[in-house]
Structure formats: structure tokens, C-alpha cells
Amino acid sequence: MNDSFDRDWQLGELLDERQLAQAGSALGELLGRELAICDAADHVLWGILPPAARRLPLVIELEPLGWLVADVPEAALHGAAALLTQILRTQVRFKMASHLHVQAMSEDFETLRLEHARLLESEARYKALAEQLEKRVKAQVAQLEERQQMLYEAEKLASVGQLAAGVAHEVNNPLGFVRSNLSTFARYLERISELKGQLAAGPAAWTALDLDFVVADSQDLLQESIKGIDRIARIVAELKSFSNVDRASEEYTDINECLRHAAGVIDGQLPPGVNLRLELLPLPPLVCLPGHLNQMLLNLLRNAAQAIADAGRPGTIVVSSEADDAGIHIRINDDGIGMSQEQLDRAFEPFYTTRPVGTGAGLGLSSARNIVLAHSGQIELASTPKAGTTVSIFLPVAS
After folding, report:
1. What angle do CA 199, 201, 204 make, to 5 degrees?
2. What does the alpha-carbon distance between residue 159 and residue 153 come to, in Å, rounded to a whole number?
3. Per-residue pLDDT tens over the stretch 353-381
4. Would you say the pTM of this structure is higher than 0.70?
């Protein structure tokens, strides 16, 4: 309970000097006499104490707070005392209400102060948690970036391994028949050298050694060997276009040459029953990173070949190119297994793959998109399940 309800009020607390003067002057005017207002200890608070005057107590809560003293009839003094008592009661109620208001405000302020302190403490705690979370997020992001880079490197190494296997197969074939041809040609030279000891026999020795066939077949062997060497040279030239994949410098490039290089490399790696057809129209030169584009095109062609192989039937990859005023358009179409709408929606997500576990990292299309975007281009997929897929690439040409 508030202490303002059960405290003993003093008259001087309820009326200050100005209020006592106003009340005393008004009562003096009303009574037409001098009067005095005293406290409970008989000290005069206002007025002049008349001699032989009547005095009435000013009672509030059964206890007199003071006295009203005046030389007037008793009835008039009672009326004046009642009026002053009512003023004092009003002051008591005002003081109590004011005290309650101040106390309520103080309690509200204290509550707000405590709440503010609690909020500051909570803010500091959340700030510390946020800093810890930010550090953990940065650490996790750095770890993810590191692992992503490792996966990109692993995918690159896997591509290099597949490329090396295909090239080894391509180079091994012409090397095999060139070696066989040279061995046969060596035996032919031995037979020709035998003619030296039989020159006296003349045409009979020539015929006996079957040198007409040796000469004709030697020409065929040499021509076939030359073609094999040319084929190896072409493979080596195509490989050179992939040797600068990490070079950052840009250069003017004929995209058709990139397509031919990629097609030449993938041609020896195509599964049985998969054919590759180029439909290339003249293109303007493009400022680009040719090594990156070559790697991207090779991956897209490899994806197309795999899609046809997964369909379990013969198929054809058609690579077309054309140009308009805006830039260069490339399309790689296959009639393979195709993709569902769900697969299309996620096709460019890093690490998403429809291949069995361990056979693909899911970075081919993601890397292709990044390379195309790095050249300010666009890449789109259109596919129908069991019917095939078309990859459309647009590369703008600077005017």
C-alpha cells in the first residue's frame, strides 16, 4: 500500500504560504474580523492571533491538523472552519493523487529502464551471436569454395583424361598402319636389293621377284603412310587449341574453327552408331577466350554423344552455326534420351547430374553457362524426353 494513504499530514504541507494567505484573506473578508491559522502545535502559520478569541480544530482523518482562531460568533467560526477543512481535504486528495501519479510514473520509468537494460543485454548477446554466426558462415563459405574449386579441378582432370584416352586411340590407329606399311616397305627394299645379284637374268629376274607389284604397292603404302602422318598432324593441331584453356588473354577467333576442332577431337571418341554432322555458315570473327570456348564445346558434344548412347539406339549430333546483326548463334542438337522438365529446371545447377554416382560431377553445363556469361552471351536448353535435346548458344559480336 502506498504510504500517502496512511501518513499524518501537516497543515504546512497541504497549504504553502501563498495558499494560506489566499485562504486566510478570503476567510477574513467573509468573517469581517482578524483571524489566525495555526498548526497542530499552535504555531501561527498565517494571520494575527486575536486575544480571547474562539478556536476550532481543523480535523481530517480524526486528527486535528491545526486550528482556526477568530473573535467571531461560534456559528460563523464553525462555517469558516468547515470551509477551510474542505479546502484541506481537497489538498489531501490532490497530494495523494499527485503522489500516486509520481509513484506510477517512477515505477513505469523504472520498468522501462529495466526493460531497456534487458534489451541492451539482449542486443549485445544477439550481436555476439551474429558475429559468431558470421565467422562460421565465412568459414563454411571458404570451405565450400575450396571444395568447389577442388571439384572443378577434378572435373577438369577427368575431361583431360577422357581427352587423352580419345587422342591416344586416334593417334594409335594411324601409327599402327604406318608402322605396318614401313615394315612391308622394308621387305620390298630387300627384294629390290636381291635384284642386284640377278641383273644378268634381266626381265626374267624382275618378273621372278614380282617387282611390278612391289613398285605399285610401295606407292600405295607411301601414300597411305603420308595420309596417316597428316592425320596425326591434324590431331596435334586440334589439341593445340585446347592447350591454352587457362590463358586469360582474348583474341579474334573464328568460332567455326573452334567447332571443327572440338568435333575433330570428339570424333574418335563417339560410341558406335553415333554420327556427327557439321552445318556451319560463315561467321564474323569474335573477341573471346578460344581455349575456354573449345573446352565448353567439347563438353557439350560429349554430353550429346552420351545422351544418344543412353538412348540405346543409333543417332546423330548436328552442330550448326549462323550469324545475324546481333551476334553468333550455335546449336548442338542430338536425338538422344532427352530430359524431363524437372531435369531441365535443374540442368544448370552446380553438381546436379543425371548420371550414376561416380560417373559425373555435374559441372559440365554449369561451367558452360559460366563461360557463356563471361562472354556476355546466353545459353538455353530445349529437350523432349526420349526425343533429344538442343543446346542453343548466343554470343554477341561487338559492333
Report:
1. 115
2. 10
3. 766 544 555 566 878 888 888 888 999 99
4. no
